[in-house]
Every structure is written in C-alpha cells, then in structure tokens.
Amino acid sequence: MTLEEYTLEEKEAIEELRRRLEGEMSQEMFEDDNMFIRFLRARNFNMNAAETMLRNHIAWRKANNIDTILTDYTLKEVVEKYLTLNRIGFDKEGSPVLYSHFGNLDTKGMLKSIKKSDAMKSIVRRLETDILAMKEESAKRGKTVDKWIYIFNFENFSFSTATHKQTLDALSSLVTMYEANYPERLKAGYLINVQFYFTLAFSVIKPFLSGPTIKKINIFGRDGWKEALLKNIDADVLPAFLGGTRTDPDGNPACKTFINYGGLVPEHYYIRRSSKQFSQLPGIKKYTITRMSKIELIMTVTEPGSYIEWEFETKSKDIGFSLLYKEDNMDNSKVKELIPKQRIDTYMSSEMGMYKCERPGIYIIVFDNSYSWMFQKEVYCKA
Q1: Where is the GOLD domain (predicted)?
Q2: 8-64: CATH topology
Q3: Over the stretch 233-245, which tens digit does the pLDDT of each residue have?
C-alpha cells in the first residue's frame, strides 16, 4: 500500500509514528506503511498509545527471534501431525483462508507434548507464513492484501476441552499475544457448528479479545454458515464439506490431502507425566459416593467475574459431574443448571476445569452416582 492511498491525516500520522521509531526496527519494517497504519488504527490514532504498542511489538519480535522464525524454527513432529490449522486457499479478494477442525484438537495431549514456548512459536510461525503469502498475493494482484480469514469448526468440541483450565489458560495467552502483535489483521472469523460447550469456553476467552476483533467474529450453529462462507470464498476454493465444490483428487469431500483433522495425541509424545498420583497430592479431599446417590460441593461467590476451578479423579469407573447455580441459600431459590451432567472417566488423567461466574450467588458442583445400581465411587477432588 502506498502513501497515496491514505488520507492526509493518515499520512501525517504514519510519518510521525515512523519518526518516533526511527532506528528501532529493521529497514523492511521501517518502510512498511501498512504496519504503521495498522498499529495506529488499533489504538484509534492515539499517537502515544500506538507508539507504546509498536515498541512492545518490536521488543517481542526481538526477544522471540520472530524475524527468523520461518528459517530457524522447526515445528515439533506432534504439532505437524496433530495441530489442525491449514491454509485452504485465498478468498475472492486474495486474503488467506485458514481452517481448523478445532473440535477434534486434543489440547490436553498437545499441552502435555510441547512446551508453552513451542505452542506460541508454532502459532506464530503459521501467522508469519501467512503474512509472507499476503505480501506475495499483494504483488500478484497489484493491491494490498493485509488481512486473513479464519474458520474454526467446533464439531465434536467436548465438555472436557471447554472447561479444561490449562487449555483455557493457553488459549487466553495465545489470544493476548495475537491482539498485541497482529492488530487489524483479521478480516473475518467464522466459528461454525458451535453448541453449548462453546459458550463455556468463549466466556473465558472473550475478555482477551479486542472490540474490533469481536465485531468480525461470526458465530453459527449447525446452519447458515455455508452460505456466509460462499459470499467471500469461491466454491472451487472451499472444500465440499464446507459448502464448496473442492474435493481431493479421488473425489473425497473431506479433503484430507490438505486438511489436518487433528485427533488424539499418542502418549509416546508426552513430555509431562505425573510423577505422583493425584490422590496423594496436598489439599486433595476424598469423597465416597454410594451407589444411587450423589454429593454436592457448595461454593459462595461474591464477586461477578470470579472463576471456579476444579480438579478430580475417580479410582475406578466414571462419575457424573454437573454445575448448578442459585441466587441464595433460601429453600425456594430457583436452581439453574449451568453445566449439564456429564459422565466423566478419569482413567487417563485427572479432570481439570474452570467456569467463569457471571453473577454472585451459590454455585454447586455435583458428583452424581445415581445411575449406578452396583458400584460406589471414590472421588478425589480439589475445588
């Protein structure tokens, strides 16, 4: 994008921000008008705020060697095989289109298999790859292409993932990193096939998203999203299962030759294994739930926006888990089901989760064994 494509006020703002940061960045960045305007727009042309944001970005790039990440950083094998995030092509205006079958992503297994730094670098490498593609597309089209489209498919998104504390912490960190360093890059986000569990996770992630980003996110259930995608993406680019006409060479509409669908991460990739049984850790309480019965753990929340966290395991078989809410301890206070009962099996590892409390009141964790006619359950819990 040349300076002539900006208004006089925008040109002046770009030059002022450039003047303030002369000598602070690479020559390529220094000559990039588009970078300056994106940071200015992200801060509503507040010059001091834009300068601070851009200085922080430059420091972040240096600290994490972002300028050489495409040549110097190699993705871990587990990421290559099980991270579902692929560019499927470009939209009608040349913007890269990225697809993730997020509901299939084994976030627990992935987080046990890589370091936090590798998780960040894997995503940043993807972003930087697509920025390079946008520069190439800009040269080809003779106009600036500086935004991308993301499609996240939440089909198969589970309760276990939606409330998993480590997953939510990792996603919050990634979103924070993205907002701070890739402003004004999102053209549109499509979250498709969302169901109830999505709302649990999104309530935690949403506060980390900027207002402009939220406005560009389009949320769909089972219907309506194919038509929306086709408005921006040609049918021959969009895979058949997403409403387009593109298939694999053998006619497979799933397009598995260029889309990674994720899946369970094999344990041999794990670099984090518990050296001590959860039940033996400090602060763990044991609850014995007889057959055809249930117990309730009651918590009083006084501040809206607080978080409830839990971690538990059973010694054998599964246990029903749910979260209820009522305004106060009065007997006639209406009880609302926040998380419907799920039968959770903790054979592989303890179940760790969190929930954002929108209102003060009484929150009740229920461990339910009422469906079992034969077996009592031992639950070890920290909440």
Answers
A1: 272-383
A2: Helicase, Ruva Protein; domain 3 (1.10.8)
A3: 999 999 999 999 9
